[in-house]
Amino acid sequence: MIAEAVLNEWYPVAMAAMVGPWPGRATMLLGQDINVFSEDGRIIVRGAGGDLAVTLAYGHVWACPGTPAHDLFPVPEAAQPGRRLVDCGVVRVKCSPLRAVENFLDIAHFPFVHTDVLGAEPHTEVGRYEVQIREDSDEVWATKVHFYQPQAAKSAAGGIVTEYMYRVAASTSAVLYKTCPNNPDEWDVIGIFVQPLTEELCEVWPWMALFDDTTPQADLIQFQQMIFLQDRSILENQIPRLLPLDPGKEIPTQADLTSIAYRRWLKRKGLTYGAQMVAA
């Protein structure tokens, strides 16, 4: 049985601009077959038990299989004048949806998985940064993260030390704020919205809100998909497939502070779907 805390969350199920009439997009959510389609100017998400609650935000359709416990998390930058909102399609990954989020939070893999783009040897050290579970918003944040990157963004002209802030806004959605090469007074915003198909299979919807007036849309999408496809091979070979919430199952390092906080936060909320719990 899936816990109410899981059923009552919002999950991405489609790009809003791509939804067509019935049968629309046939897909899955938490093991349930659903269809996402348009009818009389509305977008509907229909499962075997009827229509699901729906909201539209950040270029995507979001559905709740249960009774929504709260509104969808805010990303104010999505409404900021001058930003380009980029929907980057979807990537299917054979891993726990929680594993996909945790990988997004990992800094240490940049030089080894995204070589000469998001990282490079010998710049492999992850400096000290701060992590907290913010009680007011019920989110995990990592701040004051700095890392040398040969190409921090598609628009970057050369290597820079990039500052990051990571935000776990929901159990299967995370947003990062990073140095904007085109506007030093602002952050580039990149999100991953994860659709849990099953406990060991998910679809990841990358999304961006950027200050970039020159790079062609196709190049922005290709760059972000390239990054995530590099991650996919790593994610699909992780063992166990479910995310262990027992801190003794995998040995963390200083670079894993965000992952530790994320796992602690999930455990505290009782979100077990896609997780490997503490052995009895």
List the SSEs and their pairings.
Blueprint: H1 4-7, E1 11-15, E2 25-29, E3 32-39, E4 42-47, E5 50-51, E6 53-57, E7 60-64, E8 84-87, E9 91-93, H2 97-105, H3 110-113, E10 130-134, E11 139-149, E12 160-170, E13 173-179, E14 187-198, E15 201-210, H4 217-235, E16 243-244, H5 257-269, E17 275-276
Parallel strand pairs: 16-17
Antiparallel strand pairs: 1-7, 2-3, 3-4, 4-5, 6-7, 8-15, 9-15, 10-11, 11-12, 12-13, 13-14, 14-15
Helix segment count? 5
Residue share in helices? 10-25%
Q: Could you say what the CATH topology of the largest domain is called?
A: Naphthalene 1,2-dioxygenase Alpha Subunit, Chain A, domain 1
CATH superfamily of the largest domain: Naphthalene 1,2-dioxygenase Alpha Subunit, Chain A, domain 1
Give the overall pLDDT as a whole number: 86
Elements, N to C (H/E): HEEEEEEEEEHHEEEEEEHEHE
Which runs of at least 5 residues are low in confidence (pLDDT < 50)?
A: 152-156
Beta-strand percentage range = 35-45%
| Radius of gyration from CA coordinates | 18 Å
The biggest beta sheet reads: 8 strands, antiparallel
Short description:
The chain has 280 residues and is an alpha+beta fold. The protein has helices spanning 4-7, 97-105, 110-113, 217-235, 257-269, and strands at 11-15, 25-29, 32-39, 42-47, 50-51, 53-57, 60-64, 84-87, 91-93, 130-134, 139-149, 160-170, 173-179, 187-198, 201-210, 243-244, 275-276. Strands 8, 9, 10, 11, 12, 13, 14 and 15 form an eight-stranded antiparallel β-sheet that branches. Strands 2-3-4-5 form a four-stranded antiparallel β-sheet, with no helix packed on it. It has a three-stranded antiparallel β-sheet with strand order 1-7-6, with no helix packed on it.
